[in-house]
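Record pair follows.
FIRST:
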Amino acid sequence: MTTRTLGQRASFWVSAGVVSHTLWTSAAPAMVYPVYAAEWHLTHTVTTAIFAIYPIVVVSVLVAFGDVSDTIGRRATMLLGLTASLLGVLLFAVASNVIWLFAGRALMGVGVGLSAAPSTAAVLEFSAAGQSKRASSITTAAQAVGFTLALLIGGGLVEYAPLPTYLSFWLLFIVLATLFAATWFLPRHTVESPSRRWRFRMPSIPPEFRKTFAISSTAVTTAYVHGVMILSLGAQVAHDLVGSANALTNGAALSLFPISFGVVGIVAKSLPSRPAMTLGALASAVGMGLLVVSVAQHQLVIFLTSTAISGMGYSLLFLGGLAAINARAPAQQRGGILSALYLFAYLALGTVAIVLGVIATKWGLGLAIKLGAGAIALLSGVTILFSALGSLKAPADDGASARCNSESPRPSVCL
C-alpha cells in the first residue's frame, strides 16, 4: 500500500507553517502574563522566569539533538517537535497554578528546539533551485505571521472571550493538531548514507564555514534578543504607555513589531546578506534608543515608532543572517548548522530574560528596559563590525544543491 504524500509546493508551505508555529508558541502566553500576574500575584521575576525557561530548554535540546534531523529526517524531527509543542500548549490550556505553566513552557521549548532547525531547512529544501533568498524571506514572513497571530488572537480572546487564561491555548492546540496532520504527509525521503546512525555530538561548525557562521549567528542572536523586550516585558510597557487595560489594544500595539518585520522580510528578500545585516543592526540600535525615550517620557507615539523600527531591524538581521547560512551550508550538515545558529540565539534570549526579570523586580521596569536596550545596541554594534570585517561571497549555485524535491530521482536530504 502506497502512502499518500504531499507535492513539493504543498510541502514547502507546510514546512513554513511549522516555522510559524515556533514563534506563535513562543509568543502565545505574552498577552496572558498580566492576567496570571494579577490572579496569582506573580512578580516580574516569576513571569520572566516562565518566559525564560522556554529558551533555556530550547538551548538544551539544540545542544543534545541539534543535528538529529540530518540523520532521521526533517519530517520525523518536526513531528516529534510538534508533539512536544502540543503537550506544552495542552498544559497551559488546563493550568491551575504556576507549576503547570513552567512544565508547559518547558515542553514548548522541547517542541521548538526539535522543530526550528528542520523546518527552516525544509523550507529551503522544498523551494525551487536557486531560491535560497526566497526561502529566507518566507521563513522570516512565517515567523511574523505566528508572532502576529499570537498577539492579536491572544489579546482579543483575553479581552472579549470567556476563560481568558485558557481559550487562546485551546485554539492553538487545534491549530497545532492540524499542522501535525499535514506534516505527517510530507515526503519520506532517505538519507544519502543510510548506514549512518545518529549519536550524541556537541554542536560543531565545519572549519571552512566558521567565518560565515560567526557573522550570521551574531546577527540572528541580536534579532532574537528583541524577544525579551517584546514578549517578556513588552506587554507591561504597552499597558503602561497605552494607558488601556484592553488586552487587544495592547496586543495591537505590540503587533507592529512582527507586522513590520514580516513586511520588510518580503520586500527586502533580494537585498544581499551583508547590507541587510548592517541596516538591520542600525535600525535595531535606533529602535532601542527610541524605546528608552518612550518609557522615560511616557510617549505612546515614540513607543509605537520604536516597535515598528525594531521590527524592521529584527527582519533585516534575521533575513541577512539566515540567507548567508542557506546559501553556503553543506546540505548534509544543514540541520546541525541551523541548530547551532538557533542555539546561540536562544541562549542569549534566555540569559537576558532572566537578568532583566530580576532587575525589573528589584529596581523597576524602567531600568530593565534601559539595560535591555543597551544590550541590543551593543550587539548591533558587534554585528556591524563583524559584517564590515567579514566577506560573504555567494557560491555559484546559491545553495541550491542537494535540496529536497519529491520529484527527484535521487533525493539527497532526509525528510
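SECOND:
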Amino acid sequence: MIDIIPLKDLFKPVYGVNLELIHLEQCDKRVHDSIKFVSRTEKNNGVSAYVKRINGITPNPGHTISVAVSGSVLSSFYQEDEYYSGRDLYYLLPINEMTEKEMLFYAFCIRSNKYKYNYGRAANRTLKDILIPAEMPADFGIISLKEIPVPSSQRLLNKDIELKIENWKYFNLKKLFDITGTKTTSVLELEEYGNGQYPYVTTQATNNGIEAFYDYYTEEGNLLTMDSAVLGYCSYQPLAFSASDHVEKLIPKFQINKYIALFLVTVINKEQYHYNYGRKCSQTRMRKVKIKLPAKNGKPDFLFMENYIKSLPYSSSI
C-alpha cells in the first residue's frame, strides 16, 4: 500500500509572477518571443493566451505544475516549458527529481481534491497540506506517453464559415427525431459479459455520457442520446451501446453523420437551462422542444451544419 503524505513533502509551492493579461500584448504562439500565459481556467491545460515576453520579468520555470488556488480551484496542469501566470496561481517545484510522467500523475492527484473547494473556499492556505500519494503506482509507470495519439489541429474544410444565427429557423425536435427510450441495463448484468468495445451510456454529463465499455450492447449506434433524469444532456453515440435508466434515444429521421451530429448536439445542449431536479427533461418535454437551426428552403440545412464542423480546427481528428 502506498503512503499518503502532505504535498509539501514532495513539492515546494511558489506564488507565480502574478501578471494581468489585460496589460500584456497577446500574440500568435508561433511568434518567436511568445510565451504561454497560464491562468485559473480549468481548460486548455490552463493556458489562456500567448503573449510577448517582457524584459525584466522572469517567467515561472518549466517542468512544474501550475495550480489555481481560487477561481477554478485546484485546476492543476503540468507545464513543460516556462510561462507567465495570473493572480492566485502557484507553481509546484519538485523537491526531488521527477519524470514528466510523475508530474502528470501528481497534477491529476491534486485535481482530484477539487471537490473540497469552491469559489468561496480558496486553497491558498491549505495547498501545501493537501494529501497525495508518496509515490506513483507502478501501473502508471507502464503507460507510454508516446503511444497516446495527439490530435491534429488541421481542419477538413479550409475556409471560414459564418453562422449568421439571425437567419436560422425553429424546428420541432420530434419532427427531426423519433424519441424513444433505451433498454435499461445494470452494471451487474454487464460485468457478466466483461470489458469490451461497446460503450455503457449513463445520465452523466461528462465523457460523452459514457461510464465504461463492455462486451455487450442493446442499442444500435449513429444516433443521439439524452439524459431524462435531470438536465437533458445530449451526446452522439457512433457505436452500438448499452444504457442505464433514464437514457433516451433520438433516432434521426434524416441521413446523419458525425459532423451533423456534433452540430446538433451543441445546439440541443444549449437548452439545458430549462431543466433542473424539480423539472426534469422527460420524453414529454423533449417532444415539445424547438431548436433553432440553419435552414434552406424551409428545411434544416444539414450540408451547412456538416461543412461548418469540418471548417473548425481539429475537425480532421474527429
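COMMENT: The mean pLDDT is 94.
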